[in-house]
Design brief:
Helix content of chain A is 66%, strand content 0%. Chain A has helices at residues 2-16, 24-33, 47-60, 65-76. In chain A, helix 2 packs across helix 4 (65-76) and helix 3 (47-60) packs antiparallel against helix 4.
């Protein structure tokens, strides 16, 4: 029983510790991309590399043009 | 559905769909890291995905025993946070040298599943989601609510699912229930492969959690492969403890000694 309570406590604490996104672009990047893969650091690709990747991944994540632009801005700024 | 018809139907549909999809260039796949647990993540809105599950359960330490449970599933992203699925569950038992009756391959239940992601991924320390499944087949109906939790850290992804299952026999008015806890930890080796470990504890009860009848714990490795078009997950579980013990601290009356599951996923 004490282990069950411990697990519940950890979950409640975990779910209440929110991350502060620095911009709406970063939040969108997390919302649209982190469900399928880890959030790759900006330094992992060049600006051109991110642009190419966004063209491909934007289709997979069903992003519209505005969303693609916002995420690309965040990754290349 | 008789054995010949259901077997033919299952393989015909599966083969046709898989072959046609392998030759379609528009296919992209999502990622499923685990075979026993769901992550708290959902499909993007309007995404459509097919999944083919194969679950084999074998060895009851008495004679020969093998249960095969194929499943064909269609998943759809209703919104970014809500994914709905419909699937067909099949079942076959081959058994000799014991008192467990064999059963031909047949459609056992049809299920409807909904997963709702409560937060944005990585917005909180742990990502939570709600799951509800309704299954119907013959004279039984099943309700299965779950709590799904996921935590990503660098190349690791961990999951915990807390599952409740209530099965009602409409004709006999009998009720059974089960509680299942699953845990998983996976490591991304590269963009195409991940390896992991999964744990499962299953507890069966009379009526709605009135009296525990048996329980068993399993543990085993998981391998995930993914490409632009498909993903494939394979997991093998070994029972490590169970009760009431029927054989070397294992519960082999209602559970099997070994379980294997594969999932082939294809996004349309």
């Amino acid at each position: 029983m004490k282990y069950t309570l411990l697990v519940i406590f950890v979950i409640i604490v975990g779910c209440s510790a929110s991350k502060n996104f620095i911009s709406k672009e970063e939040k969108l990047y997390s919302e649209k991309c982190a469900g399928c893969h880890r959030l790759y650091p900006k330094s992992e690709l060049t600006a051109q590399g991110w642009k190419t990747t966004m063209e491909e991944m934007g289709k997979r994540a069903k992003l519209n043009d505005e969303e693609k632009k916002m995420i690309l801005t965040y990754l290349t700024e | 559905m008789n054995k010949v018809n259901s077997t033919a139907s299952y393989f015909s549909i599966t083969t046709l769909v898989v072959i046609s999809l392998f030759f379609t260039n528009q296919i992209k796949a999502d990622t499923k890291f685990f075979a026993r647990s769901y992550t708290a993540y959902t499909l993007p809105a309007k995404a459509l995905e097919l999944e083919f599950w194969q679950t084999g359960r074998f060895d009851k330490s008495l004679g020969n025993y093998y249960r095969w449970q194929p499943r064909m599933e269609v998943e759809y992203g209703v919104t970014d946070r809500l994914t709905a699925s419909m699937y067909l569950n099949f079942n076959e038992v081959k058994s000799t040298g014991n008192n467990i009756p064999s059963q031909p391959l047949s459609l056992s239940t049809t299920s409807f599943e909904f997963r709702y992601r409560l937060t944005n991924p990585s917005e909180y320390f742990i990502d939570p989601a709600l799951y509800f499944e309704l299954s119907y087949g013959g004279d039984k109906i099943e309700y299965e609510p779950k709590l799904l939790f996921t935590k990503r850290f660098e190349k690791f992804i961990s999951v915990m699912n807390i599952n409740s299952e209530i099965e009602r026999d409409i004709a006999g008015k009998e009720t059974e229930s089960a509680f299942e806890l699953t845990l998983g930890l996976a490591y991304e080796l590269n963009k195409n492969f991940s390896i992991g470990l999964e744990f499962r504890n299953d507890r069966n009860f009379k009526e709605v959690y009135e009296k525990e009848e048996n329980q068993a714990s399993f543990i085993g490795p998981t391998i995930n492969f993914r490409s632009d078009r498909i993903y494939f997950v394979v997991n093998f579980l070994t029972q490590v403890s169970g009760g009431p013990a029927t054989n070397n601290n294992l519960e082999l009356s209602s559970h099997e000694k070994y379980e294997i599951r594969t999932i082939l996923g294809i996004e349309l």
